[in-house]
Amino acid sequence: MSKQPNFLVILADDLGFSDIGAFGSEISTPNLDKLAKNGLRQTGFHTASACSPTRSMLMSGTDNHLAGLGQMAETIARDPFYQGHKGYEGMLNDRVAALPEILSDAGYETIMSGKWHLGLPKHAQPHARGFQKVFGLLPGAGNHYLYEPFLDDNTPAMKFLPPLYVDGPEQISHKDIPGPFYSSTYFTDRMLGFLKERNTEKPFFAYLPYTAPHWPLQAPDEEIAKYKGRYDAGPEALRLERLERLKQLGLISKDVSPHPIMSPYGYKSWDELSPEERAISAKKMEVYAAMVTVMDKEIGRVIQLLEDRGELENTFVFFSSDNGAEGALLEAIPVMGDQIKKTVEKFFDNSIENIGRGNSWTYLGPHWGQAATAPSKMYKAWATEGGIRCPSIIHYPKLGGLLKQDNGVTHEFTTIMDILPTVLDLAGVQHPGDEFRGRKVHRPRGKSWAPWLSGQRKEVHDENAIHGWELFGQAAIRQGRWKAVWLPPPTGKDQWLLFDLDQDPGETKDLAEAHPQKLQQLVAFWHEYEAETGTIVNMADPGVGGFGRSTGINWDDWGH
To answer: Where in the numbering of this chain does the Sulfatase N-terminal domain appear (predicted)?
Structure first.
C-alpha cells in the first residue's frame, strides 16, 4: 500500500446546508452522518453560487473568473457580451493547472465518475484534463433514468440537457450505457469498478460528483414512499424544524436571527396554495429527500469498499455541495426560457402519482430551497450566504488535531479554492507555480488546510484576507466578519449592503449607514478583486443572468 495519502472528493449537486442528518435534516443519511461523527463538520465552508464556477475553483484552486467560468457556460453561450474575454471561455481554461493533471504527473492514479460541467469540447473533457479513468456526464444535469425524448429533427427536446457522456477518452451516447440506469447508483458502480481494478502500488485521487439532488427530481418509488406525508406541513414548518435541530447540534447560535423566506418570481406562499397544489409541492419534496437518501447509500458503498480493503485510514475524504440549494431552473432558463413548460407538458407526465419517475420532470422551487439554506438568505445563484455556504465534512483521523475529535465542528471560514492546495500539501506535491506543461498558469488563491487541521495554525485565512464573489450581476466582498453585497434589480436596489456575519449570519440587518467607512473600504477591496480576476458584468442584462425578470415565464403555473 502507498504511504502517500489517497483522496476521495465527493460533491453533491445543489444540496442545501441542512439537507443531511449531520446538519440537522430529517432526511436519512446514516453514512454521511457516520463520516461526520468520526470527522469534522464545517459550517463556514464557501463555494461559488452556482455549479460550474464552483467546479472550476475546485479543480484550479483559484477564482472562477480566472479559471474559465466567469459566468455559467449556459449564459456565456447565449450572451455575446462575455464571449472572447479571458476567464469567460465557458470551460476550465488552459491558464490553470488542473488538480488531476498535477497529481497524474506526480504518480497518482486519477479517477472520476459523475458530473463534469467544465467543458464539452474534446480538449476540455475530463480525460484531457488529467483523469486517467473516467465515466462522466458532460453538461450541467441529466435525466436520472436516461429518459431522453428527441424532436423530429433528432435534437434533444430538453436542449439545455444534451445527453452527452464520456467513457475514458471517448464521448458516448446515452444509448450506449447499459441499463437499468439510475444516476447515483451507476456513477457509484463505475467508481467501485475503477477502485477495484486500480494499481494498489500507486496512491489515488478519486472524484465522485453526483447529479443528485439536482433537478429533474427523480428517485425509486420505494425510496419516495418512505417520506410520504412527511412534508405535508409545508416549507416554513420544515425550515423551523431544521433551525431548531441546527441549534441543538451547535451548528448555529441559539440566538440567531434567520432570514425570512422570500417569494421571488410571483410564487404563491404555502397558505395561498390549493390542497391539490400543496399535495404536488409536498410530493416533490418527498422525491428530493429520496434522492438524498439514495446518494447517501451509494456513498456508503464506496466507504465500505475502502474500509474492507484497509484503505480508509489512509484516505482523506471530503464531502460537500457545489452551491446552495436550488430555487429556480438556473441552467435551463438562459437556453429555453418560456419553452420549458411547453416542452415538459408535451414530453413528460407530471401527474402527482408519476412525479419522481423517469418520465416526470419537476424541480423544487424557492420556498423549499430556502428551508434548506436557513438561517441564510436565499439559495443558489445568490451572492448572499444561502447561495455560497454549503455543508462540509472532512474525514481523515490519521492527521490528528481537529480531525481526531468525535463530532467535531468548526465555524472557521474556508473556501472550495482551498481543496487543491490542501490535497497537494498532504500529498507532498508542489504546485507548478507560474508555468505548467509549457504554458503560463495562475497560482492558487486558496490556502492549505493541513497546518490548521493538524493544530499548527489557528486559522486558514486571517481576518485581513479578502474574498470576492460575482455571478449573474450579484457581487459580494468579504473581510473577516464583514461582508458587502450588491444585488441588482429585480433582486435588489442597485446599492451595496453591509453585514456583520458574526452577529448576523442571516444577513437581515444592513449596516451600511451605521458603518460607512467599513463599507467604503470593502467597496475599494471589491474594485481590487474585480481588477485582479478580470471580472466583467453585463449591466445591460442585470439580475441573475437575465432570468427571473424578462423570460415571460408564468411562475405561478410552473410549480411551487
So the answer is: 5-429
List residues with catalytic annotation.
51, 117
Q: Cβ–Cβ contacts within 10 Å for residue 181, how many?
A: 16
Q: What is the pLDDT of residues 242-282, one digit of tens each?
A: 999 999 999 999 999 999 999 877 788 999 999 999 999 99
Taking only the tens place, the pLDDT of each residue in 105-164 is: 999 999 999 999 999 999 999 999 999 999 999 999 999 999 999 988 888 888 777 899
- Counting residues of the chain whose pLDDT is more than 70, the rounded percentage is 94
**Can you name the residues that pair with 115 across neighbouring β-strands?**
137
Closest by CA to 256, choosing from 269, 245, 270, is 245
| CA distance linking residue 98 with residue 102, whole number of Å | 6
Burial code (b: 16+ CB inside 10 Å, e: under 16) for 139-150 equals bbbbbbbbbbee
Q: What is the pTM of this model?
A: 0.95
Instruction: Kindly tell me the burial class for residue 394, based on how many C-beta atoms sit within 10 Å of its own C-beta (0-12, 13-18, 19 or more).
Output: buried
C-beta neighbour count of 309 within 10 angstroms: 13
Q: What is the CB-side half-sphere exposure of residue 388 using CA atoms within 13 A?
A: 30
Cα 343 to Cα 341: distance, rounded to the nearest angstrom: 5
Cα 121–Cα 141–Cα 546 angle in degrees, nearest 5: 85
What is the band of 336 on the pLDDT scale with cuts at 50, 70, 90?
low
Listed in sequence order, the residues at least 6 apart from 471 whose beta carbon sits closer than 8 Å to its beta carbon are: 48, 49, 50, 53, 64, 71, 72, 381, 383, 545
What is d(CA 17, CA 44) in angstroms, rounded to the nearest whole number? 11
> pLDDT tens digits for 91-117?
999 999 999 999 999 999 999 999 999
What does the block give as the cell for 187? 456513477
**Other beta carbons less than 10 A from residue 8's beta carbon:** 25
> Reduced to 3 states, what is the DSSP secondary structure of residue 168?
coil
Can you tell me the distance from the alpha carbon of 62 to that of 329, in angstroms, rounded to the nearest whole number? 27
Which residues, in sequence order, are bridge partners of residue 499?
483
Query: Quick one: pLDDT at residue 458?
Result: 95
Q: Are the beta carbons of 408 and 400 closer than 8 angstroms?
A: no
Strand spans (E) along 58-192? 109-115, 133-137, 164-167, 170-173
Q: How far apart are CA 490 and CA 470, in angstroms?
A: 16
Largest CA distance in the chain: 63
Position 489 scores a pLDDT of: 85
Q: Tell me how long the chain is.
A: 560
Can you tell me the distance from the alpha carbon of 241 to that of 244, in angstroms, rounded to the nearest whole number? Answer: 5
Stretch 27-50: mean pLDDT, rounded?
Answer: 98
- DSSP letter, residue 518: H
What confidence tens digit (pLDDT) does each residue in 378-411 have?
Answer: 999 999 999 999 999 999 999 988 888 788 999 9
